[in-house]
Amino acid sequence: MGTKILSTGVLRRHSDTSFLTVEAMNADPDSFRSVTVQMYDWSTGSPVILPMVDPSTILIPPSQYRTFRSLALPATVYAYEVRIFHPKDKDVVVSTFGLSALEFDPQMGNNAVQHDLARLSLK
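-> structure tokens emitted (123 positions)
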């Protein structure tokens, strides 16, 4: 089946964004799907892995979704990227969000649904 790699590209952090989140849905009614998420701080011009609350790889059961969350972002992070690795099928759909600290509200400009993400070919 192979793996598809999607990226937000480098995003500028909204001033109210405290956390990064990815929602990954497995719409397949019969099969599990593995999804891996990596979050990077690009503020220095080079990627530095951001720590996450959840495991970076999760096996998602049929007809369910899982959440991947960053730890609270340090104040020094002003540019970030989210990468998502998932099967090359149409049963997995992902969205990314920058969330506020208080109510976990999605922040304007820090949200991307799957069709907004760029496809990467890392070698």
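Residues 102 and 117 are 27 Å apart (CA to CA).
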